[in-house]
Amino acid sequence: MRTAFAEQFDVPPGYLNTASIGVPPARVADAVEAAVRRWRTAADNPPDFDAGVDTARAAFAALVGVDAAAVSVGASVSQLAGLVAASIPGGSRVLLARGEFTSLTFPFAAQRHRGLELTEVDLAKLPAEVAGHDLVAVSVVQSADGGMVDLDALREAAEAAGAWVLLDVSQAAGWLPLRLDWADWVVGVAYKWLLAPRGVAWLASRPEALDVVIPHAANWYAGEDRWGSSLYGLPLRLAGDARRLDLAPAWLPHVGAAAALPWLASLDLAEVRAHCAGLADALLDRLGLPPRGSAIVSLDLPDAGRRLAEAGVRASARAGRTRLSFHLYNTMADVEAAARALGR
């Protein structure tokens, strides 16, 4: 058991794989376990889960710097990004980072039959290439290697070009301080640095951008009166705010999200960033590599994955390299274990 930022974690030594799956505080896992016990004894009614859905929605809003009324509930990045991709005008020119995670890019590629034109450029060059495009879709922190987009430069370039911006915070929210109310859309999942179960995602929309999105998955939960008049029959009557894009929630994952996200939103995220990126940079230093200021480290070292696994260090293979990722429950002991495994 480890203690970090006043929470208890059952995370094992050497777990450096948060970019794949975050390990919840014990309190969060207990909340989900209790919900499963209630489920097996028929102790809950469907509306009982609404408070948790709304609590997690508000906490996600706080983590990315927007109003809760701007946030829609979904299940995955691809599902929510797909709403945007299917709603922008045919023929739109979309700018993407080369090597971007496909949950963000495939939804736009799937719309090529409507004439969408996709352009991929290196992440570092992306802000300079915004002119001439209608929309930019990019992860704040890249999944494959932890590269970070220059948000200030992107914002300036998008405003000058009049381009929409869709940001994916799946590898950033929870360790990186964010204020993204300027972006048209912000999407993110719960099961990485947000330490909640898989099956929850959110989409924050600026008012003008929300009006662009067609509710292709319109359903009763997105209705203005979701437990009353929205349940049966026509006409379409959706909520007036971002709830109009809600997907009916997977209840148990939202129980975990409602327990985890408010705690994360209450932390000094500058301190969390210093901790996470500091550990990642400490590992790079031991390997004779320059610091990057990211919580994700990507290594191109012979047999790195095998050597780490044999030493009990959990990492991932991504884009032909070995990826390690640090969160608030990691310590210098994890850094030293990884460095020893890699012969440094």
TrEMBL record:
UniProt keyword annotations, A-Z: Aminotransferase, Transferase
Top-level division of the source organism's lineage: Bacteria
Matches recorded under Gene3D superfamilies: Aspartate Aminotransferase, domain 1 (3.90.1150.10), Type I PLP-dependent aspartate aminotransferase-like (Major domain) (3.40.640.10)
InterPro entries (alphabetical): Aminotrans_V_dom (IPR000192), PyrdxlP-dep_Trfase (IPR015424), PyrdxlP-dep_Trfase_major (IPR015421), PyrdxlP-dep_Trfase_small (IPR015422)
Domain Aminotransferase class V: 121-287
MF GO annotations: transaminase activity
Coiled-coil region: none
Entry protein name: Aminotransferase class V
Species name: Gandjariella thermophila
